[in-house]
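Hi F.,

I've been meaning to write this up properly since the lab meeting, where we talked about keeping a consistent format for the predictions we share between groups. The idea is simple: the sequence comes first, exactly as it goes in, then the structure tokens exactly as they come out, then a line or two of notes. No screenshots and no reformatting. I'm using this chain as the first example so we have something concrete to point to.
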Amino acid sequence: MRKKEFIPMNLQLFAEPPAGGDGDAGDTSATGGKSGEGSNKADPDDEGDDGVSLAEQVAQLKVQNAKLKKANDKATSEAASYKKQLREKQTAEEIALQEKAEKEAEREEQFQKLLRENTITKFEKNFLAL
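Output, unedited:
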């Protein structure tokens, strides 16, 4: 049953066309008569002329790579300094919030104590008035 689930595939999609010209498979006008070769390939004899320009291109790419690495290092160091400043700022803010919360808790505790004393005093007055 598993064999029926497979889809038949044509694995010869990129195979070279047969030599007998059946249809458009034998059309060589698009490739200029060369089958299997790209038209953008350079001759091996021209490598001596391009050697100097390739060396210059490599040097330019190395300089550009060095500039990009330097810019990347600068950006990462700036990001690290901003992150450090943010952490310092957050800790200062957190300290301020903690102090504020402690003061608020102390104030609330004093308020509850005063309410209790006030209630006791009222009950005491009512009891003595009887």
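Notes:
The chain has two helices and no strands.
The CA atoms of residues 66 and 72 lie 10 Å apart.

If this format works for you, I'll send the rest the same way.

G.
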